[in-house]
Design brief:
The protein is mainly alpha-helical. The protein has 6 helices and no strands.
Length: about 160
């Protein structure tokens, strides 16, 4: 609400109050200030990436066949189990953060994607599974999730362009 003869103080939900702010860009200036200029990723894109991350992980897990016998499960190294546990926690953290529209969730998604790639690569190396067509599909999904998270993370932290 404006009083007679006084300018609006603060934001108060009106664009004219923002124009009178000492931190605003001069009217003749063409430079853009804001998240789009800084290369920030919109929160809608973050939410979509959370869905892609969840669906990709579920599909990559579903195409994996049962292990090669009970001894394949018993002889899985502890390091691979630890990588799997950390990756799962990072996936849950990334999913929650990205659904909330938090850019830092891209960091967790990037590390989770790297964990998925490592698990996919170590699976046949440990004797847990044999290499087959499903493995190439799982590796492609894992690399895609890692690369997508990495690209979005780099865009989210890109400096403003002049």
């Amino acid at each position: 609400m404006r009083l007679a003869g006084r300018e609006a103080e603060g934001w108060q939900g009106r664009p004219d109050a923002l124009r009178s702010s000492p931190l605003s860009v001069p009217a003749g200036s063409r430079s853009r200030v804001g998240p789009a200029a800084a290369g920030a990723v919109r929160s809608a894109v973050l939410r979509w990436w959370a869905v892609v991350l969840a669906v990709g992980t579920v599909v990559a897990t579903m195409i994996e066949p049962v292990p090669d016998g009970p001894q394949a499960v018993e002889r899985t190294p502890v390091l691979i189990g630890a990588i799997g546990d950390v990756t799962l926690v990072l996936l849950f953290v990334a999913f929650g953060a990205l659904l909330a529209g938090r850019r830092w969730g891209l960091g967790a998604a990037t590390y989770a994607g790297a964990g998925l790639v490592a698990l996919s690569a170590l699976c046949p190396a440990s004797g847990h599974h044999d290499v087959a067509a499903w493995w190439f599909a799982q590796l492609a999904i894992s690399v895609g999730l890692f690369a997508g998270s990495l690209v979005l993370r780099s865009r989210a932290s890109a400096p403003a362009r002049p």
